[in-house]
Task: structure prediction
Amino acid sequence: MLNKKDFLKALNLIEQMFPEAHGELNWQTPFQLLIATILSAQATDKGVNKATPALFANYPDAKSMARADILEVEGYIKTIGLYHMKAKNIVRTAQMLLEKFDGELPKDKKLMQTLPGVGRKTANVVLAEAYGIPGIAVDTHVERISKRLNIVEENASVLDVERKLMAYIPEEKWVKSHHHLIFFGRYHCTAKNPDCESCPVLKYCKFGQERLGV
Ligand code: SF4
Result:
């Protein structure tokens, strides 16, 4: 298991590779970030960014989205996977925001997760990005890298990964580190073809060493 000290050294190298790492979803308001993040589940940020300009032009806020016809909403997001379910979830989320939270996003992880289509990862992303509330959202990239770097067991749950990262990374770096890990997973340590040969992190990575036989 990689210890905290060595993990932080590896993370520092990852930061140097992607100093400008940032959230890639396009949004203007916390509400729009929430909707875009719900839409991004099992979809690419690029695909979501293609659909949201027209969606947000018609339904820019909770009030307009709450009154939307679900079939019309589907028309704007049908290029995104699981769009039937997501259309229902975003309209219902807008309705619940109006009914329970005066149209504002709750700034609380547990309350946020009572909204349809909002799990722990989405709540963490939205609270961190919109309000700067510290959190580490564990998506497929963050989970894969954490397992390849061997800071958790291969069969660890997403929650285990989140807890370990929170224990290893100083709180003030949670939000930024989450972006660094995502960029590293998207553009270097990819699922199918990680570039281990030129990886600065190789000396800390059991998976890469075994893969290259070094
Ligand atoms: Fe990913 Fe390979 Fe680098 Fe390990 S050595 S972090 S598997 S790219």
